[in-house]
Fold this sequence. Notes:
Blueprint: E1 12-14, E2 17-19, H1 33-52, H2 56-87, H3 92-99, H4 107-110, H5 112-125, H6 137-140, H7 150-175, H8 189-211, H9 219-246
Antiparallel strand pairs: 1-2
Amino acid sequence: MGFAVIPFGRSFTSGGHTYHLALLDPGNGMGMLYPLAIGGMAVYGVLVAAWSSNNKWSILGGMRASAAMVSYEIGMSLAVITIFMTTGGYDPSEIITAQSHLPWAWNIVRQPLGFIVFFTCMFAETNRLPFDFAEGESEIVAGFNTEYGSMKFSLLALAEYSHLMTASALIATMYFGGWQVPFVREPGVLLSVAAFLGKMLFFAWVFVWIRWTLPRFRYDQLMHLGWKVMLPISMANLVFHAWRMSQGH
Length: 249
């Protein structure tokens, strides 16, 4: 559902009609608020799965997931609001167009601090290492999915990896020009789709790479990172870009 408004290619006109390469029309008023809202609701599935299995490890994993969401969601939201502010809207097509085909105009160059915050928070959002405290095999057996097996466990795993792909698509859209091809002003439709898929798969690979590279943080370290590091950085990033816009830059 969160992927529905993300354009995975350049819009094109045929027979007098304009076709948007997205499951929902990106300009329908919801914009990038929609996938962020859907992502915020994912924790309810974790909580319900944890509570309904009637297992103390599952309950602990569900409570960890809800507390972690409160910690990182604010910093992540401020990073995204900064992009909305500098773009002038939250339509994903506008965000992609504003970054243009020049790599130094992409938001990764314009807002590196915001990217670091958003990218880090995406690991907590998707319950991936080093922030998979809702599962925490070395501490709470397997967390919220301890009592699940067969098709139920498969659906939980499918949801996690779907979330991973959506997070990769969000990173590519908001910070790496979306379907824009470097140094190509108006790419063909197939080329734009290939560029978007390449960026998305690259970040999916980064998620897997970091999973097998970094150890799991302690739970209190995530709390400290969310409230005392990510939140101040996001606020400073927002104030700085608001000041730059007020100066006409």
